[in-house]
Amino acid sequence: MSKKSPLILLSFLFVCAHLNVLAQDATKDYIKKYYMLAQSEMAAQGVPASIKLAQGILESNSGRSELALKARNHFGIKCGSAWTGPTFGKEDDDYNADGDLIKSCFRVYPSPEQSYRDHSQFLKKPRYSKLFKLNIKDYKGWARGLKEAGYATNPKYPQLLINLIERHQLYKYDDVKYTPPTDPVTDVPPLVVEIHEFNRLKAVYAEAGDNPQTIAKRYKVDVSKVMKYNETQNPKRAFEKGERVFLQKKRRKYRGDKKYHLVKPGESMYNISQLYGIRLKYLYKKNRMNRGRQPAPGARVAIKRKAKSTPKLLPKGQHPDKPTISPTPPVKPPKITPPPKPDVEETNTTYHTVSAGETLYAISRKYDIPVSEIKKANNLDSDIISIGQQLIIPRK
To answer: Which CATH class is domain 29-174?
Structure first.
């Protein structure tokens, strides 16, 4: 053996160890960036956060793959016949009739957040339906089920996911109350979902100090459009923290299943128009109201079809006397007024006041009540809840 051989071997081992440390650091940073997004998708769509993170780490090489960097595609999802968005070509596992490797077509997303959301929708295909019958904490069942349903061709795919989940303790994120320890030197602030879709429209949530000008700059939209879409004439009008701001023109009616909105104390017609993505003038027309009048708490405001009669109103000239109620509230929760009593008198009704960090999924687990029943009892058409909001918990 050459005298240089031991030195070469040591150098090789040193390089391998160094690369391994870099990979571990990249994975830790990836988890810190995306764990809240994974938990948000878990609450909204039912995909375990541990599985979401493990797949993201594996498919994107902890966010460092060419597909993740150039196409913001973190889950290796290919175009498919239904995809109409931008595409990215990359050699993977597709061959032509002659058996030659050709470039596969992958989806391109405007942001990693959109990739996470589309991954959840992708798993809603019928062939993955059995997965959603598993316990949300059964990450091993999910890992094996993904392979059986055809998500990946690698026979070792389930074990790769399980190894990642156990090595990095990703199963902890399946508990929405879990918050990882922070490192003041290296901690990376977690990303949040920036662009939402509501009433089939793009919308964002305002941060403290935001106005049409700051929103326009951040999301690269003309300030005149932000003002027009949100029906304001003032480019410096201050949005409340958490207020929904639309990046597209609001619609004439709500396209969801809900027909009416039950007015809460402090809500104005403008608040309701922002909640449902309906232009204010059409909201007034639907409810046979004169512009400027405001609904009284407990009134039913039509959001889909024209109301048969005008809802109960506040006295002429009177405006709601409480701050604007936003989809995501300010840091300090507002004083809560119990909801109006229903037409049918209830006894022993349980109420739950939403606290910071809680989701419908967490509340459903606390009371052992399905999310669907809580949404039905409170007339909710989405999974969005606010700090301080009082929910009716149906009895078993």
So the answer is: mainly alpha
